[in-house]
Amino acid sequence: MIPLPAGVRVWLATGHTDMRKGFPSLALQVQEILHRDPLGGHLFCFRGRRGNLLKVTWHDGQGACLFTKRLERGRFIWPSPAEGVVTISSAQLGYLLSGIDWRHPQETWRPTSVG
User: Fold this and answer.
1) NCBIfam families, per this entry (predicted)?
2) What pLDDT is attached to residue 112?
3) pLDDT on residue 79
4) Per-residue pLDDT at 108
5) What gap in Å lies between CA 105 and CA 41, rounded to an integer?
6) Cα–Cα distance between 68 and 97 in angstroms, integer?
7) Which of 17, 64, 78, 86 has its CA 20 to 30 A from that of 113?
8) Is the C-alpha dihedral spanning 41, 59, 18, 78 positive or negative?
9) What span, in angstroms and rounded, lies between the C-alpha atoms of 33 and 73?
10) What's the pLDDT at 82?
11) How many beta carbons lie within 10 A of that of residue 72, not counting itself?
12) Mean pLDDT over each residue of the chain, to the nearest integer
């Protein structure tokens, strides 16, 4: 994972997002829905409808970055839209990106025995 500078916050866009969107459309969503500055140096995370695709936007001071991760098994644990704007720590982001429930660190899928 990319080391985050001190003071960087991680914001989750609750609900699901159209994963066809690129940085300009996601930045607009950050402004209009989360009421935050997409160029302020914070990370903004978006999850697709099926739950296995995640996009993260970040402006590092030099330019805009758009990261994408798709889980082969399991899904990203996500807050409901009723929870409003959610911020998590960088440690919780590490759990989230690994497919582990960041609220209660446990894997979201269990390996099955072969045989």
Assistant:
1) IS66_TnpB (NF033819)
2) 72
3) 86
4) 56
5) 27
6) 10
7) 78
8) negative
9) 30
10) 79
11) 7
12) 87
C-alpha 2/C-alpha 41 separation (Å) is 13
Which residue, 32, 53, 30, is CA-closest to 40? 30
For the chain, what's the residue count? 115
- Token pair recorded at residue 99: 């497919």
Res 33: pLDDT? 87
CA 62 to chain centre: 21
| CB-based contact 54:69 (threshold 8 Å) | yes
Is residue 1 pLDDT above 90, yes or no? no
Most distant pair of Cα atoms in the chain: their distance: 52
Q: For residues 110 and 38, give the distance between their C-alpha atoms in angstroms, rounded to a whole number.
A: 36
Strand, helix or coil for residue 23: helix
Give the H/E segment covering residue 93. Answer: helix 90-97
Give the start-end residues of each E strand in the chain. 10-12, 43-47, 53-59, 64-70, 86-88
pLDDT of residue 115: 60
